[in-house]
Amino acid sequence: GAGVSQTPSNKVTEKGKYVELRCDPISGHTALYWYRQSLGQGPEFLIYFQGTGAADDSGLPNDRFFAVRPEGSVSTLKIQRTERGDSAVYLCASSLTYSNTDTQYFGPGTRLTVL
Amino acid sequence: GESVGLHLPTLSVQEGDNSIINCAYSNSASDYFIWYKQESGKGPQFIIDIRSNMDKRQGQRVTVLLNKTVKHLSLQIAATQPGDSAVYFCARSGATNKLIFGTGTLLAVQP
User: How far is A42 from chain B (nearest CA, A)?
Assistant: First the structure.
């Protein structure tokens, strides 16, 4: 079956611009996660949704970052006034249930480059 | 604080040999550990997991060992193949669902 998909695969933007990154989780998965991965590092947690609501947004670095999941399926990560330090691969994952021992399946990521 | 780290950043093995990738963690509250494989340009791919009430778990060609006394996790890959070449991450999940990853080990399989 289809895995987690993310669009776009690559995004190049200029400093100060606004970007939106989209995640389509595996069908039927109730939990959705966003992570950010810098070159040579492991993914870092940003935010986690249970259904439509953000259950944990403690990883969002500042108020320029925001994510939504209005219908409990597709999620959008929004970054305002982008900075060069925001350049990274943004990964989305989903799991079937909210259990902390449920496998998180990752998408291919969106590579964001801020010039 | 919470952290998961790896002992070896790069591991080079011959095709057909067994590989062992190690990971240390600092937070004893961890109750779920996972190994992911990440190939260049792709997202992390689940390999195997283990809960804190277990010491060992086996999959197809892979075995994960958990030593809670010394807070150490290892991934063993039997008969390593060129397709196993990738970066391997250990991760943990505690009371919350967020995964905390280590920095990764690059496994290079020589033909």
Answer: 5
